[in-house]
């Protein structure tokens, strides 16, 4: 074995060296704080007074850029490159903050800790090296023998030392940050019950218009009282009135035809004998079901979109449907079981997406829109590129959604910044969302503030009318509950009011229920009210309900005990990650971060005479 190790030491060195490049940038070539080499390499800003090292930024940027190009399979649009630049800067800022925090806490690493870690906690790259494998698994003994052999030369040992000198203090810091994280057995048991216990219910949805007919009166004093008691409700974010030019990313007719052709090929493959589940796992664009072979489980009539629902409740059991078009793409459906109101089915989804050529054309057109908008104005740019132009569009910080665009929050942020700086710039840079590219021309900007009582009066009046009618419907519902508890059936009292008793379930406490919602009073009643009894009237965002539990399946305590420690480990990992994320957000929020990339990276070259 020693001979093999000597012969392959060069390979090991290369593998390990590649994984240490980042560490060398941060730890060898410069102090991560930038104190020792800021003058030599330049910095792109400051974090609490310490420079953001240029070399570290370029290393992070290159890694992210290469990864994005590989995922995209080619060149990247300008908007995506901007995202990568920001991500690289944020990554280096985080590293500087971590180093500052370790310095503040006095976290260091000893030579003994490095030796112990090198012996028992191998670098991930080495754990994947086949030289240290036995029957396909990492063999710690082989690795330790290698460390003690002449094959582990001084250069490799130095690389390992530098890795642990950087990694161990960071590990200590994260342990300190998450030291108070703990989860009890009772919390684990409750989480298990929430995930596995099920309830089935009958319910009555109270029709407010039916139970509370007629007009209601709202007085001026009630409006003023509501306004005074709910001041925070009338705080409004900043808003901008803009002219907007939009280039949709919607797939073309050719893209739709390509998706249809593909789904037809898959149908032919299945009809020729291919396994439906294997084809779904390989080809389906539905991330929620593809890993389960396209399995959608059991769903009720009306739960799916209409086109899908119609086929699911009419297709002969076991047959493969023709391609079905929905807003999600084209589906192949196979119904496995069905009753009058429920179906168990699986599907394959082929999404309609732009081709690579189509995407390239869209990105080129978007670049043209941006350059023309800057030089010739937005209306002429929109006309030249075929962009949809719309004037007098109001975007609010609290509701920045624009049909066909999605979130336009970036436009609000840009408008606010330009207004504060009084730059006189009226045309924004190009923005990109999953739905479209867009540019805005600022017409006016309104800072965040509070809506006056006069402006809020009519909305308050409408809200109070709705609430009063709901209160009346609730009173009628409680009278129905009283009748049931006095001896009538839920069906009898519902029918007397022209209402209907329906069923839902089985469902868990945490899974979303399309009728009752999630984590609300209706779900609580489903698991808390005795079987066969009725709840009080419960209110959710979906309406007012009377709930009658009909069945519940309790959690298996023995099954929970068998997996408890694995559950604890997984939960602790999640809790620690959440705690670290919160801590980093707070650390960053409190930091004084100065971003000077624009000045440094776009500065003209220095010339000498």
Written description of the protein model:
The protein has 609 residues and is an alpha+beta fold. Helices cover 51% and strands 19% of the residues. The protein contains 23 helices and 21 strands. Strands 18-5-20-19 form a 4-stranded antiparallel sheet. Strands 12-7-16-15 form a 4-stranded antiparallel sheet. A hairpin with a 2-residue loop joins strand 3 (133-134) and strand 4 (137-138). It is globular and about 90 Å long. 22% of the residues are buried. The model is unreliable at 1-41 (pLDDT under 50).
Described by the principal axes of the CA atoms, the overall outline is: globular
Helix content: 40-55%
- Low-pLDDT sequence parts: 1-41
The biggest beta sheet is recorded as: 4 strands, antiparallel
Quote the distance from N terminus to C terminus.
62 Å
Per DSSP E runs of 2 or more residues, the count of β-strands stands at 21
Strand order of the largest sheet: 18-5-20-19
Descriptive labels:
single chain, alpha+beta, 23 helices, globular
Give the structure's gist in a few sentences.
This protein is an alpha+beta fold and 609 residues long.
List the helices and strands and how they pair.
Layout: H1 2-19, H2 21-28, H3 38-41, E1 43-47, E2 50-53, H4 54-72, H5 78-105, H6 111-120, H7 124-127, E3 133-134, E4 137-138, H8 140-148, H9 154-177, H10 185-196, E5 198-206, H11 208-211, H12 220-229, E6 235-236, E7 239-248, H13 253-271, H14 276-283, E8 295-300, H15 306-312, E9 324-326, E10 329-338, E11 342-350, H16 356-376, H17 378-385, E12 388-396, E13 401-402, E14 406-407, H18 409-421, E15 431-432, E16 436-446, E17 449-450, H19 453-485, H20 490-496, E18 501-507, H21 521-528, E19 538-540, E20 543-553, H22 557-590, E21 593-595, H23 597-601
Antiparallel strand pairs: 1-2, 1-21, 3-4, 5-18, 5-20, 6-17, 7-12, 7-16, 8-11, 9-10, 10-11, 13-14, 15-16, 19-20
Helix pairs in contact: 4-5, 6-9, 10-22, 12-19, 16-17
